[in-house]
Design goal:
mainly alpha
Length: 574
Amino acid sequence: MQLFDWIVLIVTLLFIVGYGSWKTKGSKNVEDFILGNNETPWYTVGLSVMATQASAITFLSTPGQAYHDGMGFVQFYFGLPIAMIVICLTFIPLYHKSKVFTAYEFLEKRFDVKTRSLAAILFLVQRGLGTGLTIYAPAIILSALLGWNLTVMNIIIGVMVIIYTFSGGTKAVNVTQKQQMFVIMSGMFITFFLILHYLPNDMSFNSALHIAGANDKMNIVDFSFDPEEKYTIWSGITGGFFLALAYFGTDQSQVGRYLSGKSVRESQMGLIMNGLLKVPMQFFILLTGVMVFVFFQFNPVPLNFNPNNKATIEKSAFKGEYHNLEEKLVKLSEDKKVINLLYIDQLNQDYDNPILRKELVALSNKEKDLREKAKEIILKADSNSETNDKDYVFFHFILNYLPKGLIGLLLAVILSAAMSSTASGLTALASTTAIDIYKRNLKTEKSEKHYLNATKFFTLFWGVVAILFACVGTLFENLIQLVNIIGSIFYGTVLGIFLVAFYTKRVQAKPMFISAIISQLTIFVIYYFMVYNQEKLGYLWLNFIGAILTIVLAVILQFLFFRGKPDDNEFIIE
């Protein structure tokens, strides 16, 4: 990090925080603070929805995911466009018709206050954890690479977000996310083309794809029916569809984005924009990670990308053993470079040499073995070390190979993404707590100013909670997976409640509430035994199982124990 990088980073972040606070200060009432007075145009809705989901975790973890495992993760998003269509046709019209501040307020109109409160609490638990992770993800990487204290980094990121979110609520989130998305995508495009520029002079983009393909990085679609496989086209279309339906249709951090739209049509157009652009965006980010992999076929690569592990080794008795592996990796890297250059030369002559391709695969397998041995040594040096280094791959490339100024811009990208998703999370947590929990359970009526101040207080409260979650967070296998696992544990049940609310007249409040409780407890058990302990089931299936289980149980309970007059409710789809 040079002086110019610091200037770029600080100016970018201060502009976003200052502009958001100045442009949106002075909310007059709760409607203005939570819904932005329904003045948001469709393109801002679309950008805000995309920025909310595209957290720092996306830009930290996704390239690293692709570096290690290839393009297969993109299948996770295959169900998203279908979910956008369903939400546009059904969810959005009903939300606007019922004139709600939050998604969970709708459930009381359809069922009762218990069901509303249950869904709101499930949301608060998972989104509170998720918002903490959106702070923790960039903080842990930045602290490791810049040598800053992790707790200080968590506080800095959290406080920056709290400043403009507390000031302007939803308007501030929408306004700042336009700038943040511009910074994010500009930085990613510049980085992608710089990677291509850094590849050997006679190497085309097509040749780079061939090298990636030879190393099994371009396997985009997997038609396997194995439930243990995390990412297949079937889990993407089914589990991914239900996760997207739950996230965009029932999670207040997203619902709040399009509830602020000028009209039903503006909200729908914003979501359709997200549906059209999200998969290509994720494909591009994954492809950037694959190109980083190709880049490191011609350049030195560390045994482990996490600099904390290198520091741990240097202080341990296993330093010599680790250095021996590093020397082997250097020799292996030289061999890889020679074979890759020969392979490119053959490709330039329109010949995909199968012998060289096999040699590339063999060398990659040897490198994997060296990395696994390195992990074992790291754990011997410190059993508490996090040996998984996927989240450090992209940052290692940024800090070691990008020119002055661009490092600062890319760090601004990571922090902007963290701020955008954290801000959306805070407004959603604050509005849900204020409207669904606090206001709904007050015995006496209060003024608009009182509820506005309460919502601002809960923004501050959840900001502090998110920072605390971030401070006690620990790395999982991969941060982007951890966020999606947390969501998958809770989203299925909540989605099931909303689907019953939207599409059935027969099911009443009591069977709905009981089925939701049973379903959520069942998902906890399934996750613990089938996903966490034995990895017999891909976590995406939890969304599908939770939603279907909630619906089926509600219908069965209604039929067996709660037969009676169906609900006469105007908010049910005929």
